[in-house]
Amino acid sequence: MREQFRQEMKAVHGEVVDILRVITDQTRTAVHSLVTGDIEEAEAVIALDQELDARCVGVEERVLETIATQFPVARDLRLLQSLAYMAIHLERMADLAVNIAKATKRTAGRRGPQTLFDLIQAQGNLVYRVLDATREALANRDLELALKLPELDEPIDHLYKQFFRELARLHDEEEIEWASSMVLASRYLERIADNAVDIGERVAYLITGDRDVHPAEHPAEPAGE
In 3-state terms, what secondary structure has residue 95? Predict the structure, then answer.
């Protein structure tokens, strides 16, 4: 019975890691659709949203069932609670990727200043780096990498602010309308990264049991699987 419990925890952990992988791919596709005006790619991102939502809800349900039937304590309980917490953030991230895809549908066929396309692409590249690092930290329970995520997130915030400086330079009404959609997409990317950082903080917590942890203060606990 205990081995079955361990296997279920391992399976839920693996599911969360895989959902994060899919969301990373969806974010890449959404940004590419926005930069290239590819409506088919945007539709593909939107079409996958219900499946991702169902998978995230499934994680929460499995966690609740496991807690109710197995009565986990200590590290095991902390892991399960953390995975349910992460699932909520993952669902939000998937919704934000959909919002970027919807921005593609609003802006496809219109071309504004190349500077804004370049900014979106640059911001996207930084977001992918944060998402990949978050997934690696979660998969490997890497405390040092989890705590590095806020540092990786900082340049994304700076690029978001730069969008407003570029927007202020526009005067044509149609350009401003188009650029406003791009600014919203930039905001969605920023929020995806922010949610990833929140997941990283939870990774640090599930490893150490400390909500305010620094690598030098807390060596990682055993995995507990």
Answer: helix
DSSP assignment of 118-170 equals: HHHHHHHHHHHHHHHHHHHHHHHT-HHHHHHHHHHHHHHHHHHHHHHHHHHT-
Q: If you average pLDDT over residues 35-60, what whole number do you get?
A: 96
Give CA–CA dist 179/84, Å, rounded: 37
Could you say which of 1.10.10.10, 3.40.50.1100, 1.10.150.120, 1.20.58.220 is the CATH number of the domain covering 2-208? Answer: 1.20.58.220
The CA-atom distances, in angstroms, between 85 and each of 34, 130, 184 are: 30, 19, 26
C-alpha span between 165 and 111 (Å, rounded): 19
Give residue limits of the domains in the chain: 2-208
Kindly report the pTM of this predicted structure: 0.90
How far does Cα 181 stand from its chain's mean position? Answer: 21
Task: Read off the tokens for 203.
Answer: 């990774």
